[in-house]
Predict the structure.
Amino acid sequence: MSGIKVFSLFCIIGFILIFYENNKNTAPLLAPTTGKTSEFEDAVPSAESDFVNTITRFAAAYRAVGSDLSKGAQRPARASALCTQFSGDIRNWIGTLTTLSSNNEGKGVIEITIGPNITLGTWNNSLSDIMDHTLIDPSSRVYARAVALQTGIPVRFSGTLIKGGVDCFREESLTQAGAMTRPTWLMRFTDIGGTDERN
């Protein structure tokens, strides 16, 4: 393959990835900016509300600034705030279950929305997950509990965010704009169930 063809192929792939990031579907929302709804006002942990507020605040700042340099400065600032405020341990958080599926090996794929364009979840393929181990093992208790659920319902869940990367915790977006305005944070789930349960 000639050098021109190789270059053209990489350009096409790049455009596809950028198009994907800019056209992600907005998942159903459980919580507004405060991370709470009237239905779950007393149930949403304060740590979850603080997490949602921090992400939302920096998303707004990212959109508000003009230059690319100023936008780029928001990402390390957010990472510093997250590292200062959060350990990564999640206990009895509440969100809307938006993805409940499996990969080609039968391992569980889960995504949960906890605020406006804020998602916590697993990878959806084994290659991406090779170092993170977020996919749900079919023999695990989490898998057994997850199969009884359905998308679109509020759930209570526990686990840990994965430490590392430029965002303090691992985030799977392909572009800076996606990471700042529609982040999906990688998580290892240790439990999941209905909102009437505490794990």
